[in-house]
């Protein structure tokens, strides 16, 4: 499997993303450290790939190839991969689109599983900062609603405990993505679906791993 990596570098933060493996994105202060973090999280990302029942063989360190570097922005430095790379506009075949959707679904499956298994309270930072579990879950759901607008999906606000509403939102997202796989944008300021999937998957996984690492039991 391809090991293409894209880099976005802000003034304070750099992101490295394996563009063909949605969600496998890590950040650090420098490009070298971001690549090292990406590699270090490879074993954890394998669990996502396995949930798709597909090929779980990730590219090795020597297989990773940086194919694009772009300057970041204030959102990059705030802590989110915000740059759309040229490859994000590539059309997807039915097979590739299906594979990316399977990986996005696997990210959600892990997130749901983690949310049900960790402690309600999370370990806090040295100054007592940080969200607890339910705040993290609500944050991810609300962010996903915002991201979905970039592909033309507008879901009314709903309580995170409303499982039917949550599943309806996800179904709408998964239904919209194949319609945009040729690279078209849903709106003038929309995202290409390759990037949309990558951004959504990164955010879901980043907070799933956060909950795993900060649980009190």
Keywords:
alpha+beta, four-stranded mixed sheet, globular, Double Stranded RNA Binding Domain, 217 residues
- The third-level CATH topology of the largest domain is Four Helix Bundle (Hemerythrin (Met), subunit A)
What is the total domain count?
2
For the CA atoms, what is the radius of gyration?
17 Å
- Category by helix and strand content: alpha+beta
CATH architecture of the largest domain: Up-down Bundle
> Which segments are poorly predicted (pLDDT under 50) over 5 or more consecutive residues?
none
The average pLDDT is 93
Task: Going across the biggest sheet, name each strand in turn.
Answer: 3-2-1-4
State the distance separating the first and last CA atoms.
36 Å
Helix content class = 40-55%
Name of the CATH first level of the largest domain = Mainly Alpha
- Strand portion, in percent? 5-15%
Overall geometry: globular
The number of E-state strands comes to 4
Order of helices and strands: EEEHHEHHHHH
Number of helices: 7
């Amino acid at each position: 499997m391809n090991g293409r990596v894209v880099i976005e570098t802000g003034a304070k933060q750099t992101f490295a993303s394996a563009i063909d493996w949605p969600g496998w994105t890590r950040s650090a202060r420098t490009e070298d450290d971001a690549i090292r973090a990406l590699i270090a999280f490879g074993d954890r990302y394998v669990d996502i790939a396995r949930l798709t029942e597909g090929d779980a063989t990730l590219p090795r360190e020597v297989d990773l190839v940086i194919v694009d570097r772009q300057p970041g922005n204030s959102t990059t430095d705030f802590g989110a991969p915000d740059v759309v790379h040229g490859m994000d506009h590539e059309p997807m075949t039915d097979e590739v689109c299906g594979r990316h959707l399977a990986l996005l679904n696997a990210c959600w499956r892990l997130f749901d599983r983690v949310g049900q298994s960790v402690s309600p309270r999370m370990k806090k930072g040295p100054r007592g900062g940080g969200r607890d579990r339910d705040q993290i879950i609500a944050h991810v759901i609300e962010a996903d609603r915002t991201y979905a607008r970039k592909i033309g999906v507008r879901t009314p606000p709903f309580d995170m405990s409303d499982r039917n509403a949550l599943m309806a939102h996800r179904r709408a997202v998964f239904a919209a993505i194949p319609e945009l796989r040729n690279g078209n944008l849903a709106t003038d300021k929309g995202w290409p679906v390759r990037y949309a999937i990558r951004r959504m998957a990164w955010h879901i996984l980043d907070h799933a791993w956060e909950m795993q690492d900060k649980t009190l039991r």
